[in-house]
Amino acid sequence: MALPVTHHTEHAITVAAAARRVFGLIADVGRWPETFPPTVHVEHVERGETQERIRIWATANGQVKSWTSRRLLDRERLSVRFRQEVSQPPVAAMGGEWIVEPLSGTESRVRLLHDFRAVDDDPEKTEWILRAVDRNSAAELAALRTAAEQAENRAELVLTFRDTMEFTGDAKAAYAFVDEAGRWPERLPHVARAALAEETPGVQTLEMETRTADGSSHATSSVRICFPHERIVYKQLVTPALMTAHTGVWLFDEGRITSAHTVVLDEKAVPDVLGPDATVADARAFVRGALGRNSTATMAHAVAHARR
């Protein structure tokens, strides 16, 4: 009987940033959803100084996959080894390593290695995995370079905020209101259209058209990870023009709903969207106001639904 075939890939990129700055972005998985396009959500299962277990949800060839990985962080060598504990088909096993190599004080080389086996060594499954690895690796390395090279003004471009609403009523009913986003057009005045799909329990895709205060509208596409009746985490895969990334979470406690957002602004889009004299500060205020209004409106309707 033939042994399973292990396939190996390597992707690399040069980054105009110090190696330790780049390594910090790789090591901090909590920031991956805002940094890496394929990553939807990451949670720590276990966490130590040099070893950790994480659960990750990410897109691969248009599908949402989830797995738990062990990671070994070598801060001296500037490397992170990873190995999936239980892989999702068509992947039978996968691991690899991030390696950051200093080229100078202001430039580094990043190598991303993968090794994997396909279920049953099936050629079609192998090809599917190769496409996903190539696509995701290229997207992650390009995004890593962008984040590392704009590190000096990154703090200005990343906006994090939350709104909270107190209420008396059934928290599960409030959760259900947000969970049933496919019904938002009939329930929320700022939602013109919504299409919700949930092929895997707890993993939703939501396409939505939202009306803005000036009467225009914009379309978004999101992946939502649902943890009944506690929280709904989401990431927009298609964002409005002012953003390069938008992640968020709905939190439900007895007597309280919270909507939290993390947005990465697109500095180059600011003049086109807000006018030639607009600044990043103007964009921060605009996005904070627009998202806050929509979140508050949604929470108010969820509260009314819970009270009924």
Low-confidence stretches: none
Inertia-based shape? globular
Structural class: alpha+beta
How many strand segments? 14
Q: How far apart are the termini?
A: 64 Å
Order of helices and strands: EHHEEEEEEHHEHHEEEEEEHH
- Main sheet attributes: strand count, strand direction, barrel closure: 7 strands, antiparallel
Q: How much helicity do the residues have?
A: 25-40%
Number of helices: 8
Q: What is the CA-based Rg, rounded?
A: 21 Å
Q: Quote the beta fraction.
A: over 45%
Strand order of the largest sheet: 1-7-6-5-4-3-2
Give the overall pLDDT as a whole number: 95
Secondary structure elements and pairings:
Elements: E1 7-15, H1 19-27, H2 32-35, E2 39-47, E3 51-60, E4 63-74, E5 79-86, E6 91-102, E7 108-118, H3 123-149, H4 151-157, E8 158-166, H5 171-179, H6 184-187, E9 191-200, E10 203-211, E11 217-227, E12 231-238, E13 243-253, E14 256-265, H7 270-274, H8 280-307
Antiparallel strand pairs: 1-7, 2-3, 3-4, 4-5, 5-6, 6-7, 8-14, 9-10, 10-11, 11-12, 12-13, 13-14
Task: Write a brief caption for the model.
The chain has helices spanning 19-27, 32-35, 123-149, 151-157, 171-179, 184-187, 270-274, 280-307; strands spanning 7-15, 39-47, 51-60, 63-74, 79-86, 91-102, 108-118, 158-166, 191-200, 203-211, 217-227, 231-238, 243-253, 256-265.
